[in-house]
Every structure is written in structure tokens, then in C-alpha cells.
Amino acid sequence: MIVDVHTHCNTSAHHGRYEKDRARIYGDRPENPPDAYSEAMKDVDVSIVVGLRATRLGVATPNEYIADFVRQTTGRTIGYMALDLSDDDVMDQLEDGLARGLKGVKLYPILAGFDVREPRHDDFFREVARLGVPLLIHTGTSASADAILELSHPLVYDGLARRHPDVRMVLAHMSHPWQRECVIVLRKHANVYADVSAMWLRTMEGYQAMVRAQEWDVVHKLVFGSDYPIWTPRQGIDGLRAMAARDWSPFPAIETETIESILDRDSLALLGLEAP
């Protein structure tokens, strides 16, 4: 079973000040209605769909929008709410999202500007741990000139995992370009995973990330994600398999089993989620 843990339903109307930077890097893209999403997800068995929230930049995908989007898809889709821990009513937003049937939380600290290690956020992390609500956290770089890079380094999440070891979290993009440090964080913490979205895109970074995961024995902590609609699941699957098929000699190979195990991973079980 292929599970795509990282897809988006947010549109340009949700992007606030981020839209100009997003368009500069990725170009104009068509909006992402549920029918187009459903067609793209035919290459996976289950998908997790998220929005974005960074209040200081006017970025917000409402819980209601995400829940409605999930209902309009034709595949097996799990919705995550997008929250900003800087919001005074974040606990109310969490309760609202759960009431609407959303199963997890997407955090975007690099744009929202909060530090997950600050004690004022402890109540939130204690609550998601108590409820068994998993997190998908954007880590690594961003196209936005407003991004606060130091909030997105994987060592920040070593601090979070030490403070709240029962929180299940996925670090998006293997924290690129800090995949080396991400691998070490995965090795330390039982409930920290990373998705491999975009790892196939940049040849040397992707190669080093996969080989380091092999050498540090953390391949089992990697899960598949496409970052749709930037890339489709099919592009992600084919890109990862092409990495394994390539002759990297005289350097170590990316093992076929590494890639196939990522694609076959029961990510839902790791995150405590039931298949829809």
C-alpha cells in the first residue's frame, strides 16, 4: 500500500503575502480542485491532504475548507488541519478541526514565526500527544523571503522530541538542505519520521540523503510524500525509483530495497491513523 503523507489542497486565495514568492519560484500553477486532486491520487492508495497557516503573513487554509475538500475527493483521503501556534485561539482551532473529522495537524513554523521549543506551546503538544494526533511539520528551506530559516532546522525538532517524546511527527522534505542532521534526529527519537518529498529532484542532495539513511540505519523512519500539486505522486514514485536504478559507482548504491520499502511503508500505522 502506497501512502502519500504530504499533499496540499490550499489555493492562491489562502497564501497571503507568501503568494508572490511562491509564484516567483514555482511559476503560475492551476488551482487545485478536488477532481484534479482525485485524478492525481490514483497512483497511491491513501493520501493525507493539508493546508497552510501563517497568520503573520495572512496565510490561512480554514478547517472548513479542508474538511469540505476531503469530502469531495473520490479516493481514500485523510485531512489535516493547518494551525499556527502563535494564534491565541489555537486550542479552539484544534478542537474545531477534530470535530470536523480532520485527523492531524500541519505546522509551518518557518513562515508562521513560532519556535516549537518555547514553553508557551507545551499545552498544545501535550494535548496532541494525549489525543494521538500526528503532526506534519514543514522543515528545511522555503521560497519565501519572509521565512525564518533557523526555526526550520531539524535540530530544533530534536529539542521538541526531547521535550515531548510521545508526539508523533513527520519532518517534511527530510529538512532539505539539512538532511544529514535530519537523519541523526530520526535515529534518536522513536516517534520522529521524515518524508522524502523532493529528494529525487536535486541529484546530489537526494543521493546523499538516501545513502546517509542507509548508513545510519534509519530507512525505516522514511515515509513517502509527493508535495502535490508541486509534484504528482507519479513523479515522486518514478523519481525515487530512478535514483535506485542509477549507477552511482564508485560511490555506494541507493538500494532498490531502500526505495521500495519507503513506497510500501505502512505510514498510517506509524502515525496512529486508521485507513479511510
TrEMBL record:
InterPro entries: ACMSD, Amidohydro-rel, Metal_Hydrolase. One of its GO terms (cellular component) is cytoplasm. Residues 3-247 form the Amidohydrolase-related domain. Keywords: Lyase. PANTHER family: 2-AMINO-3-CARBOXYLMUCONATE-6-SEMIALDEHYDE DECARBOXYLASE, ISO-OROTATE DECARBOXYLASE (EUROFUNG). This is Amidohydrolase-related domain-containing protein. GO terms for biological process: secondary metabolic process. GO terms for molecular function: carboxy-lyase activity; hydrolase activity.
